Hints:
Elements: H1 3-15, E1 18-19, H2 20-29, H3 32-35, H4 40-52, E2 56-61, E3 71-76, H5 78-93, H6 99-107, H7 114-135, E4 147-150, H8 152-177
Amino acid sequence: MSAIRLLVLGAVRQHGRAHGYQVRSDLEYWGAHEWSNAKPGSIYHALKQMAKQGLLRAHEIAPSTAGGPPRTEYEITDSGEEEFFRLLRESLVSYDQKTDVQSAALGFLVELPRAEVLELLRDRLRRIGRWRDSVTEHYVPEGGPGQLGHIGEIMHLWIRTADSDEDWTRGLIARLEAGAYTFAGEGEPFVGVLAEGQENPYATGERHPEDDR
């Protein structure tokens, strides 16, 4: 799975309607350009591609009073909503997702009901356990990596990474069970998007040809 689809769909969804530069600004505000492939070219390409796929609806709006070409605003469609939640659920439950996909999912965690998120995370723990069992059929962690020569360091890294992910997931479950954060159906959740015209302190400042479209 590519993190860019989840990030772009989620950013548009949180605004209701947003033009490409707003989406880019939000993702830079979240630091996504540092931990994912959410670079300007990828963002604008994803917006156009998902509009062609029917996941987003494109609206051409009049240019600003300052001039310039008409801008395109995007809003998420019913199909886009389905795809957003499919990607979100898959990212939360799957242990083998890349870090950027997992990070993107955490950014939209509260879009789901608390009970569902908890069940997805518990399923994640079960999957980590099954994966760990499959690895330890061939590698016994207590024996140390040297039992397989230097190649054992690879297995050692995998096990340590899985154990760390398991500890983190259990901690997140405990925090959510204790009432952390505001989830869907519980009230107004925290929304980390920039208002129109709001300065982005984390903007890269790099211009892109699509910024004014």
